[in-house]
Amino acid sequence: MYDIIILGKGPAGIQASLYTARSNMKTLIIANGWGSLEKAEKIENYYGVPKPISGEELLHNGVQQAKALGVDFVEDEVVAINGYEEVEVTTLQGKYQAHALIIAIGSSRKKVRINGLTKFEGKGVSYCAVCDGFFYKDKTLGVLGYKDYTAHEAYELKPVTSNITIYTNGNELDMSEDAKQLIKGMKVIKEPIKEIIGTDKVSGAILATDESVTFDGLFVAYESASGSELALKMGLELNKQSIVVNENFVTNIPHIFAAGDCIGGFKQVSKAVGDGAIAGKSAIEFVRNKKKNL
User: Fold this and answer.
1) Residue 101 belongs to what domain range?
2) What is the pairing mode between strands 95-103 and 256-258?
């Protein structure tokens, strides 16, 4: 059991961990690679850095700084988060528990470009199997994607209906063997999707071959879960694609905090670091108060 789990090893997540670790909080960072900052050639507008530094070097320096303070790291993909009193984070390889959680995994990814997909969002197109699966009992469903996250979303829908098809949109399945077992028996269609169709609600799609397929709902799980998609699964309040927090970076669930690009605003390292510092401090206070009452 950890005191605090942090999702993301960018500036917000690392800065939060520097505060939590120095406050003797047992801290775990779970991350699956870095975001766009890693590709930044030069950073010249950050306090205390007199010479240009690459985004990759800045990120690696932060990780080493956190490790030196005893922060644990797991390089893995998060597929689910559960828990009301405690937090349980499920990754592809394991499960981890903590008293508090800080989400700092960046902003929502760019959406997959398929004609009609945006038009039917909320009208049969969903981004959360846990949230919306209940409404499709015994219906015909599609899951859009080709990676492990896709398999986990499809698996979440199995108790609702046995009629589930995976649409890879022209990609080969890029899944671990464990993930493939989750979708064993499900039909897989690899042809690209030309268009999502329907009238008031989604009714199916037209493939690149001009073949029509029908489904009552389409669940999008194209690559890895974004911050906003994980937030939806937990019941966190969103403002469009940004997680809503108060002045202390607390979400509408008291033991879950958020910082950095996932809460919106100015997308700069300096802002992310400030967010992480306050989120870390707030999480420390929450855990300390909780332990007093145990």
Assistant:
1) 2-108+226-292
2) parallel
How many structural domains compose the chain? 2
Quick check: 168 and 146 in contact, CB under 8 A? yes
Q: Which of these, 175, 202, 201, 178, lies nearest to 188 by C-alpha position?
A: 175
183 shares a domain with 57 = no
Together in a domain, 205 and 238:
no
- Of 203, 220, 237, the position where a domain reaches its end is 220
CB atoms near residue 51 (< 10 Å): 6
Could you give the CA distance from residue 86 to residue 84 in angstroms, rounded to a whole number?
6
The secondary structure element, H or E, covering residue 289 is: helix 269-292
To which residue do tokens 């047992």 refer? 26
C-beta of residue 251 within 8 angstroms of C-beta of residue 236: yes
The domain boundary, picked from 161, 192, 220, lies at 220
Asked, for residue 114, whether it belongs to a domain, the answer is no
Q: What is the pLDDT of residues 228-248, one digit of tens each?
A: 778 877 888 888 888 999 999
How many residues belong to the chain? 294
Token duo for residue 12: 């917000």
Token representation of residue 28: 């775990």
State the Cα angle at 270 between 265 and 273, rounded to 5°.
Answer: 90
98 and 182 inside one domain? no
Output helix, strand, coil percentages for the chain, rounded to the nearest 5: 30, 25, 40
What tokens does 86 get? Answer: 């405690």
Instruction: Give CA–CA dist 158/172, Å, rounded.
Output: 22
Taking only the tens place, the pLDDT of each residue in 110-153 is: 568 899 998 998 899 988 887 788 899 999 999 999 988 899 89
Provide the whole-model pTM. Answer: 0.81
Gap between the Cα atoms of 104 and 17, Å rounded: 11
